[in-house]
Amino acid sequence: MTTHCHYDHILGISKLPPTAAAAAGIQRAPIPIYSRNYCERKKAPPPPLPPPPLPPPPLPPPPPTTVLTSSRGKAFVTPYSNLQKHSLAGTLGLCAPKYDVGIWAEDYSQVVYDRSPSPTIPQPDSQIPSPLAMTIQIRTPYTILHTPGHTPDSLSWYDAENRVLCVGDSFYLKETPFSNGAPWGPEPPMPTMFDKESDLADWWRSLHKVLDFVVIKNWELGKELEDRIRESNSTIPGSSLTSTTTISTTPTHAST
């Protein structure tokens, strides 16, 4: 998942398996078999070596990488010339990685990966279809929020299992214990960066959107805890808590 297209967030994609469908033809080279060299001897020749074992069958190609990007930023990152320009990679004399976007994520959408059938190495003696030939749908706990402002394609994603909201470069915590306690000395506060392609009005709207989202998720957590307390009170004899005991579920702008 790319929170936006700046070079410091996408250059690592080039280290992953390619995204193009043609990458399915890549196979790992079989492990070479080496024979042992024997020194010449004046006496009887060494016994013949046993025949080398057959090399293992080549492994199936790794699945292609699926890249997720905000659907709001299609024109910002495509075609490749736009990606190269807006990634700012050229300012460092670098080239943006070339990749296909597998998921153009809509606002408030849940991330679902569809694993298409992968080509398999034919096994003539086997009548059992390979699991790699089956389509697999993977539902994730991640929800996408469009949060433009820093860039038009900026997004945030929420992990419902860990209750963590990743906002990329849209919003910074200006100072942290790590920046204050750096080995080279305290670092100055880090401001949220804006360049000529940023939009301050969009950024403010995204900020309010994220705060509202956090309020809702915190309220849901409080309601869940209240329901669990009420359920426990009804099943545990002699509990000091009564069924009327509640916890505060008033929405607050706390961190999720």
**Secondary structure tally: strands:** 6
- Which spans have pLDDT < 50 for at least 5 consecutive residues? 24-41, 118-124, 242-256
Overall, the morphology is extended
Q: What oligomeric state is this?
A: single chain
Order of helices and strands: HEHHEEEEEHH
Q: Structural class of the helices, strands and pairings? A: alpha+beta
Instruction: Name the helicity range.
Output: 10-25%
Q: What average pLDDT do the residues reach?
A: 78
Number of helices: 5
Q: How large is the radius of gyration?
A: 28 Å
Q: What is the first-to-last residue Cα distance?
A: 20 Å
Which percent band covers the strand fraction? Answer: 5-15%
- Order of strands side by side in the largest beta sheet? 3-4-5-6
Biggest sheet: strands, sense, closure? 4 strands, antiparallel
Describe this structure in words.
Pfam families: Lactamase_B. Residues 42-67, 233-256 are annotated as: Disordered. This is Metallo-beta-lactamase domain-containing protein. There is one protein chain. The chain is α+β, with helices and mostly antiparallel strands and 256 residues long. It has helices spanning 7-10, 74-77, 80-86, 177-180, 200-235; strands spanning 67-70, 101-105, 110-115, 136-146, 155-159, 164-166. The protein has a domain at 8-20 and 63-117 and 133-185 and 193-230. It contains 5 helices and 6 strands. The strands form 2 sheets. Strands 3-4-5-6 form a 4-stranded antiparallel beta sheet. Strands 1-2 form a two-stranded parallel ribbon. Mean pLDDT is 78; it is low at 24-41, 118-124 and 242-256.
